[in-house]
Amino acid sequence: MSNGTQDQTAHSAAALADALASSTTRGAPTPDPQLQDREPDPHDVARQIVLRQLAMAPRSRSQLEQKLAQRGCPADVAAAVLDRMTEVGLIDDQAYAQMLVRSQQAGRGLAKRALARELRTRGIDVDLAGEALSSITDAEERDRARELVDKKLRAMHGLGIEVQTRRLAGMLARKGYSPSLTYAVIRDAIADAPEHLPD
Questions:
Q1: Is there a single domain that holds both residue 37 and residue 66?
Q2: Mean pLDDT value across residues 80-96
Q3: DSSP state of 194
Q4: How far apart are the first and last CA of the chain?
Q5: Per-residue pLDDT tens over the stretch 8-25
Q6: Total count of domains within the chain
Q7: 3-state secondary structure of 126
């Protein structure tokens, strides 16, 4: 993750901590028995739901909209609360998309095609998704595929080349790599493997 993204994440975390603190400690007088039966303010309820969700993990605006809808929050209230959270930087789909792309590529080794699906399922705008995906170069994607193949190949020592190729291709396909890149990387990795080098 770049320093810029780390700074954004740190800033968002600090803002979230402040929001949580202020929402739970903001003027806490002894409850007035006459007011206890009043309906809670829907905006406050929505804010609390959003803050709890963000405290657990980063979320996209779309994910938070879905959570509020599940909890029966009126659409106009949800929109107002989410707009305000976006204004203060607690919701930032651009930063979220960049973080997700980098973490999923590094952690799970997903290719751009699979990452695009991940972003879609989280409701990230097409333009923001494209911008986040453009941060991964073709060379980086190929290098990550080679790392995955080399690691799995070490655990397949002694198997025939056809079996190794089939299993490696299946793994890369599940992670969204194209057939052309998949077979080029596998071919090179098998050729470089000590067990397949000529004596």
A1: yes
A2: 95
A3: G
A4: 43
A5: 544 554 455 454 444 444
A6: 3
A7: helix
Q: Identify the pLDDT of residue 195.
A: 65
pLDDT (0 to 100) of residue 157:
81
Do 156 and 142 contact (CB within 8 A), yes or no? no
Locate 104 and state its tokens: 């999923």
Distance of CA 110 to the CA centre of its chain: 12
Is residue 156 within 8 Å of 164, Cβ to Cβ?
Answer: yes
The C-alpha atoms of residue 174 and residue 185 are separated, in whole angstroms, by 15
Domain boundary among 91, 117, 150: 91
Question: Mean pLDDT throughout 66-84?
Answer: 94
**Do 41 and 62 reside in the same domain of the chain?**
yes
Residue 109's nearest CA partner among 144, 79, 154, 151 is 144
| Residues 46 and 68 occupy one common structural domain | yes
Using left for φ > 0, alpha for ψ between -120 and 50, and beta otherwise, residue 31 falls in beta
The strand ranges marked E within the chain are none
State the residue range of the domain holding 69: 3-91
Residue 186 main-chain phi, psi, to 5 deg: -65, -45
- Tokens 């919701």 sit at which residue? 91
1 touches 99 (CB < 8 A): yes
More confident position, 21 or 91:
91
> In which band, very low, low, confident or very high, does the pLDDT at 145 lie, cut at 50, 70 and 90?
very high
Question: pTM for the full model?
Answer: 0.73
Q: What is residue 198's predicted lDDT score, i.e. its pLDDT?
A: 55
- Indicate if 86 and 112 belong to the same structural domain: no
